[in-house]
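Hi again,

Forgot to attach this to my earlier email, sorry! This is the prediction with 4'-deoxy-4'-aminopyridoxal-5'-phosphate bound. I've pasted everything inline since the attachment limit keeps bouncing my files.
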Amino acid sequence: MRIFEEMESEVRGYVRSFPTIFDTAHGSEMFDEQGKRYLDFFAGAGTLNYGHNNPLITDALIAHLQRGGIVHGLDKATVTKRAFLTKLRDTILAPRNLHYKVQFTGPTGTNAVETAMKLARLVKRRSNIISFTNGYHGLTLGSLAVTGNYDYKDETYGSRSNTAFMPYDGFLGPDVDTIDYMRRFLEDGSSGVDLPAAVILETVQGEGGINVASVEWLKKLESLCREFDILMIVDDIQVGNGRTGTFFSFERAGIFPDMVTLSKSIGGGLPMALLLMRSELDQWQPGEHTGTFRGNNLAFVAATEALAYWESDDLSQAVLRNGELIQKELQRIADKYPELDARVRGLGMVWGIELPQSGVAGAASAECFERGLLVETAGDRDQVLKLLPSLLIEEELLREGLGIIDDALGVLVE
Ligand code: PMP
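Structure tokens for the complex follow:
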């Protein structure tokens, strides 16, 4: 670890929470430089839905490089860009009757969020943007302003203006309808909440601790947005790309957001972030919101290959099957250790086991690491163990990893 301690800024967290030096990986397994094997239930926080070094994707990348395909071309039209856009339209958008335009926004998630915020303000000529408690949208100044965890903020960043927070579904307890609450704020001129250009939300909060918004809440929010002429932005960066069992996480609610941010697994493991927008919202002037690495051709190759998984519903079925297994096993583990007061929640293949006592989830993650399982914590107090394995994980490896969580919690209650 010395080289990292000497040279890399302290700011990176994972280098310390997973203290080893990783070298190779295949599917759901990673190997460090000593050859120790780890099961990966973290999958790059949802970046590796198709696993590490998926052979279909690596073969396509190798073939592209060997034939001298364009690697970087700024935003010029290329054959690989066309192939990606065609595949996205034919495989994902058209079958869902979605007619979004696509804007490539940069290599990483926050770039898509910033683009959505800027476009909403441009289109509506209003600057306020509403987001929700415990939401996570990135840490650059615009996206930080709509990220709901106070730990990331600092007065001096000056990024809190023109945004407001509302309680997410369930945040005020099971009996409070937080959409009615929001309506009161919008209707009351003295509330200090200006009519927003947009709301931004995750339908399942990932970093916020696997908080699942109900279908009813999502539908009510969509209606409220329509009524008040507010754009609805769904941030599907972590739980899109099939994670919840459908390609977009909002499909389960039958809603149609005005904009959708995608990143992480959309690039098939390579850096890509994009914004989907209703076509009438594309009011940019040419050159108004561009940048250098927006639509990297290697990412187009990987992404096109990854989207082929959605040509049939086999992967959706696998996600639902594996999800049931995860839920059943986590519930069994929670019941086995009642002293931990554990609660299980999630859907598809995004699951959390909340361990409310201070420090327990972090200690469990460290125990899992020792036993060869990578699993991260989430939540406002890091109180949730978050499971995000590759969607393609073999059942045997899934069971093995869940067994490690069982053993790790067993050690903690001893
Ligand atoms: N939105 C969501 C829902 C995310 O989970 C993340 C990253 N965890 C981001 C935005 C920001 O993405 P990035 O870290 O790539 O900037």
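The first strand starts at residue 22 and ends at 26. Residues 314-336 form the longest helix (23 residues).

That should be everything now.

G.
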